[in-house]
Amino acid sequence: DKRPEDPRGPGPFFYFGGSNGASIVVSYCESRGWQRICDKTRTDYKLKWCETKSPAAYYSFKAGGQLIYQIPNNKVLTTKIGLLNSLREYDRVSSKSNITKYVGTAIFFSFLFLFNYCIYIQNVFTCCRRMRLEDFFPVTFRMDMKDEREAFFNGTTIRIDTDTIQNMWICKPTGLNQGRGIFLLRTPEDITAFRERLQNTIEQQSNRKSLFNLPQARIVQQYIQNPLLLKGRKFDVRSYFLIASTSPYMVFFRHGYIRLTCNLYDPNSDNITAHLTNQYMQKKNPLYSLLKEETVWSMERFNIYINETYMLPKGLPKDWALGLFKRMQHIIMQCFQAVKAKLHCKLGYFDLIGCDFLIDEDFKVWLLEMNCNPALHTNCEVLKDVIPQTVTEALDLTLEIFQKSCCGLKLLPLNSQRNFLLLYSGETKPLETCLWKREVRCRQAMGCCSVTQRHTGTDEVGPDEIELLEINNAG
């Protein structure tokens, strides 16, 4: 069939490429009176949303005049190796500089707040803490780096007990999503076979004159074998990291939903769908059509289950599940701090990133990965509620910030902010250190505090804002 001719005129026009989230984004734009164009080479668009990034789209992009989904070099966050490298570099640099930085800051401000000097020192070292990489990210090796490859193979041991397997590893290709290309290393034989395959690939590549068609880069990551279970099934938490603007930076967090496997958890299972929770993999399970609605839980249901099942036996506070979002926010902020100086920044770039977290049976939160172009399908009842709200508010925030920035208006407060929580605002210069409540109010009055009052224009600073200020200044 012949494609209908694109509309002409003053517009505004929008382009949507691909299928992920098409109905939501297209409906949103059309509800604003925008017209859809199908010619991806046209440059007179107001908004361009594509599943895959095309260099040509960025060459013709007009900063301050257009919006484009996906920051060009978001791979520093959204590929396995990119995220690993960014976090490692940040961990290395900040671990060397933090102590000197905060001691110097404490001495400087001690002259200004001499009467509260002791309290201040305590707050500086408590609030401005930086998480160590191993506190939230599993041990990981790059298989495309010779020294890391050898360190993994020479230092890895797998012990098989009668009931369980110790020190399992999971191998992931760096540039793929939806669980494609992932496999487990469960036995010494698995590791030996994997080493031989890698060696054969490297030898074959070294015999080629061309550097094209390089083998897929991979990481090997320690498998978390003691996950917290929901009704005996493995799960992870999908949350959202919105970079609504890169000039200035405006960064948000939103909780999403729980993703569960169809089968009961068995660490010894050879079935990959027992270990990966995403919908793409679960659809391969023969039970999926029967259990589809049970593979996705709302955060409310998750909270109720944790309260009923784990609160008393584990001594958890009520609504612990809702409180874990603060830990996720802290982790996301550390990831953002790791790439803040790396991302390409132009007025009009924005990104919605899917963040996957796993909780182990000790209730520790692990970051598994960050995903560009996260799945926006609504094939379950929970997803029909969460996904459209998430995309709509993300676009609302992005547009409001974009329009205010273009007009030179103050960005905060944001009228369109509902379920997204502001983590970082580049509109004002953030504090280098975190002070107690009285100091925060003082600095707000001077206009140099990055704390944002959500939904109100008052200068009241609540506990959540204090904690987010701590997160903002953690790096």
From TrEMBL:
InterPro entries documented for this protein: TTL/TTLL_fam, TTLL10
Keyword set includes Membrane: yes
Alphabetized UniProt keyword annotations: Membrane, Transmembrane, Transmembrane helix
PROSITE patterns: TTL
Pfam families membership: TTL (PF03133)
Domain of life: Eukaryota
Transmembrane segments: 102-122
MF terms in GO: protein-glycine ligase activity, elongating
UniProt entry tagged with the keyword Repressor: no
Protein name, per record: Protein polyglycylase TTLL10-like
Organism for this UniProt entry: Sinocyclocheilus rhinocerous
Lineage: Eukaryota, Metazoa, Chordata, Craniata, Vertebrata
